[in-house]
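Entry:
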Amino acid sequence: MRPFDYYTPESLDKALSLLDQYGGKAKVLAGGTDLLVSIRAGLLHPACLIDVSGLAPLRQVTEDRDWLRIGAGLTHAEVESSVLLQERAPLLVEAVRTIGAPETRNLGTLGGNLASGLPSADTAPPLLALDARVKIVSSNAIRIVPVTDFFRGPRETVLKADEILAEVLIPSGEQAGAGRYLKLGRRKALSLALVGVAVWVEVGPARKTFQDVRIALGAVSPTPIRAKGGEAFFRGKRIGIDVIEEGAQWVSGEARPIDDFRASADYRKEMVGVLARRGIESCLNRLGVAAA
């Protein structure tokens, strides 16, 4: 491992100034669960690590009229234990609980999980299903990017070398639906997702039709994605077992998985449909709606 400079800046502005100073040769360190592994493996050779784990602005959870604002520096354990997030974003909390061992959740951060660009990142599907955005800052600009536009390819995001992912923004307001995150791994716990499916369901006023359905998939395409075709299929349809089965097949058809040593593409594709169906049924159950 090559030597590198290490800084613990006292402010976000100072961290951004260091990024500018190193001109693309620095890396931002929060939990380090993915970054340090890549450095030790010789995949990355940064000239500098900028440790932002102690910056208070990145560790807060607040809610205003428009947004539930989650600091990107929150560890997974902090997301999991936040009373506000348990109440206002239970779908995200449910997904975070599936991430690795307790040691990983104590170190790994929400922003780091997203910024890794991994197709299997467990926080991506729930945030996609919740129509979330990310707040990205540099020394001279702030931009708000929908999570749907954040991922470009495997381990590739829209983050530039001089930028820091500062916040995750979830639309505020009354929660009119229910969500569920389901994950398939090679083991029952502590494993990367072979398939991850996040589902959000809202029902019509008479509670007999699907008003809105949002479905996001992880680990089955080059990036986490929304299953737009499947979502459109469900909207406005009468709630029923046959509709759920057919819609789940629509969702399965949108997956573009690969064969690898962990599972075949065909198996992953099949399980997308299975988890989508289970997720929708679970959401309806949480809403107290029976699928006839």
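The chain has three domains: 5-51, 56-171, 178-286.
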